[in-house]
């Protein structure tokens, strides 16, 4: 029944975007037709019309996307892009509360589809790309045992990543040649956008990503390095404590999940993971050595004063090149003036406008997946600044993803 319903959504969407509706721009902009008139007529105007669903009513999913229970035993439901929450915050060093991040971000996202969701600067509507986008709810995560929780997140993400896609990969829009998947298993995988959770969740997410793409490049926005050795960050009193939100990239590198780099200056061009918005204090400059060895290229938050958003975008694109890339966004990359509700706030960050511009600058890159982490709504203002910022940031990411299919033409690298 669920499957049938979703086919109806798509069929309706295809019909609405057809040429015969050119005169009705408002209807064209209704994403997947799930916002408009979902209810039995409760009130009739004189013209016999029913009222539309309000943007502030109803059960909250990300951007009011259809909710699909993706992690049930029947795995019938297919999609192209899925949002999933990972409500885990027991790897946090300072202020806890990111377990409420997924719920908060969904609340902050409710207005994304008001007027339909057309992204003006990117000249594209992610909700009308023809791809099927759903909200899968949250991965069940235990708050009592980090080892189990990290395994649950990996398995939950894998269950989505290894599902067939709803839409075929298709052909190159310029040459018309058939596109080939970028994965190492030769399959076309759906894309998953994870709502954190503290940053520890990226270790299990990268374990999952590795199963489809092998060692990957990462674009990381954060005020902190997160490549710290456990002996430096937390003191590692146990194996479980050694994996936390300041060390997960160290482990990802040790496990071979991400491409390595080098701290030897002459080989620094090997470093393929841009770190944007860095402004943390250090235990000492030697923290940069393991950051280099893990393959990161630091872009300090303050560089924006000199080189601007264009310069930051240029640096990121030069570092990742054309490689498939995973995107991880710590909300603390944004200045606490704009996003105060986070576990370890650092002043001197980027504005919401700046990070959105920088994210749009990733247009054309092959983003295999993404996450936003460290949103802890309990520390937000009454105006929900942080959760709205998180949702709007993901709107840019979603638009970039829907614009570029995850494929290459044969013969290109
Ligand atoms: C893609 O190209 C193949 C031939 O290379 C063709 O058979 C197929 O119909 C094309 N698909 C679309 C959606 O245009
Ligand atoms: C990166 O280096 C670590 C530590 O030397 C190693 O265990 C890992 O396999 C390397 N990763 C890759 C992708 O080669
Ligand atoms: Mn972080």
UniProtKB/TrEMBL annotation:
SUPFAM superfamilies: Arginase/deacetylase (SSF52768). Residues 1-19 form the signal peptide. The keyword Signal applies. Its cofactor is Mn(2+). Keywords: Hydrolase, Manganese, Metal-binding, Signal. It comes from the Eukaryota. Binds 2 manganese ions per subunit. GO terms for biological process: putrescine biosynthetic process from arginine, via agmatine; urea metabolic process. The keyword Translocase does not apply. It catalyses: agmatine + H2O = urea + putrescine. Its EC number is 3.5.3.11. One of its GO terms (molecular function) is metal ion binding. Mn(2+) binds at residues 199, 222, 224, 226, 330, 332. It is an enzyme of class 3 (hydrolase). Belongs to the arginase family. This is agmatinase. It comes from Armillaria gallica (Bulbous honey fungus). The lineage of its organism: Eukaryota, Fungi, Dikarya, Basidiomycota, Agaricomycotina.
